[in-house]
UniProtKB/TrEMBL annotation:
Residues 19-109 are annotated as: Disordered. Residues 44-63 have a biased composition (Polar residues). Residues 64-75 have a biased composition (Basic and acidic residues). Residues 19-43, 92-102 have a biased composition (Low complexity). Coiled coil: none annotated. This is FlxA-like protein. Pfam families: FlxA.
Amino acid sequence: MSISSISSHSSISNLIKSSATSSKVSCNSSSSTNSTSSSTDTSALESQKTSLQNQIQQAQNSSGDEKTKQAKIKELQSQLQSVEAEIAQKETSSSSSSSTSSNIIDVRA
């Protein structure tokens, strides 16, 4: 490495350090908006969950080929599990975002 590139590297390094020292990163979240949209999303998912449960019940009570019926029930149960997991994820993210109003992080090197 030549002297000029060492000097240049040192200047860049100092610039990064001074920039990082004076930087403040502001993270603001509008929890009321997040929780409102989350509750709307959760409500739609709850409705989908109920619909899937009803479809499973109907499939169980239907007549017809047992193998086809079981395949349909298995597919619906898989969809139901996905919806339930999504509901749980939304509820978890909703509770964490509603407890966070705003944070200011001071970044220093």
